[in-house]
Amino acid sequence: MGRTTFFVAMFIAIVSAFLFSGQVTRPFTQPQQSSQRQQTWVQPRQQVPVQQRQPAQPVQRQVAPTPTPAPPSPPRPTTVVAPTPIPPAVPPASEMPPLFWLPEDVRFPEMPPGGSPTVRLFGNPNTEGLYVTRTLIPHGTKTLPHTHSDDRTVTVLSGVCYYGRGEVFDEERVEQMPPGSFFTEPAGTPHYIWAKDGDVIVQTTGIGPSGTQFVPMRR
């Protein structure tokens, strides 16, 4: 009995010493570990019941529409350009009337008293086309009121031309036209001329065929 009691007492003493030795050394090492645990401690997530969970919404992706191909453009019509007509060749100088007239080349034919000699410078008043004439109106000549079938233009080259319009010759209604003056004679318009102060030379341009019609005298 004595030995058994002795061994039991020794066992209890060893166990007690071991336990007390752990309590003595723990306070010097535990505080640092406990502080680290407090810093790394994470609150556990709250579990949500399955019934309250909302299903995840599907992500809607925007897809670019496929471009529609443009319809093929119709072929352009072929433009046909007419060739530029070639102007006719200029006739030789031998077939054209004289283009240059010097004053000494213009010679008026002799006319009976009361007549007004005329020289054709270009063209012919009796045919179609442009014509130019030059007329000498002797001093004192009065042309009776008359008309022409074409439009004419008149230039006074020398002398003073007294020009009037109307169906009756009226000395009080004439316009004094000195050398260099220009006037028109519209087709069908009655007019008259008076070489009051001396000989008058006028140059007339028109488009034929032309003609002269005298206005019947009033009684």
Give an account of the 3D structure.
This protein is α+β, with helices and mostly antiparallel strands and 219 residues long. The protein has a domain at 113-214: Jelly Rolls. Helix content is 18%, strand content 24%. The chain has 1 helix and 10 strands. The protein has a 5-stranded antiparallel beta sheet, with no helix packed on it. Strands 6-5-8 form a 3-stranded antiparallel beta sheet, with no helix packed on it. Strands 3-10 form a two-stranded antiparallel ribbon. A hairpin with a 6-residue loop joins strand 1 (118-122) and strand 2. The longest helix is centred in the N-terminal third of the chain and has 39 residues, at 2-40. The relative contact order is 0.13. The model is unreliable at 22-42 and 77-94 (pLDDT under 50).
Short summary:
The protein has 219 residues and is α+β, with helices and mostly antiparallel strands. Helices cover 18% and strands 24% of the residues.
List keywords for this structure.
3-stranded antiparallel beta sheet; Jelly Rolls; alpha+beta; 5-stranded antiparallel beta sheet; single chain; 10 strands; rod-shaped; 1 helix; 219 residues
Topology diagram in text:
Blueprint: H1 2-40, E1 118-122, E2 129-137, E3 146-148, E4 152-158, E5 161-165, E6 175-177, E7 182-185, E8 191-194, E9 200-208, E10 212-214
User: What percent of residues adopt helix (DSSP H or I)?
Assistant: 10-25%
What structural class do you assign from the helix and strand content? Answer: alpha+beta
What is the mean pLDDT?
Answer: 76
Gyration radius (Cα, Å) is 67 Å
- Strand runs, count: 10
Main sheet: which strands, in order across? 1-2-9-4-7
Report low-confidence residues grouped into runs of 5 or more: 22-42, 77-94
SSE ordering: HEEEEEEEEEE
CATH class wording of one domain = Mainly Beta
Q: Let me know the CATH homologous superfamily of one domain.
A: Jelly Rolls
- CATH topology value of one domain: Jelly Rolls
Which sheet architecture does the biggest sheet show? Answer: 5 strands, antiparallel
* CATH arch. level architecture of one domain: Sandwich
Gross morphology: rod-shaped
Oligomer: single chain
Total of DSSP H or I helical runs spanning 4+ residues? 1
Intertermini distance: 200 Å
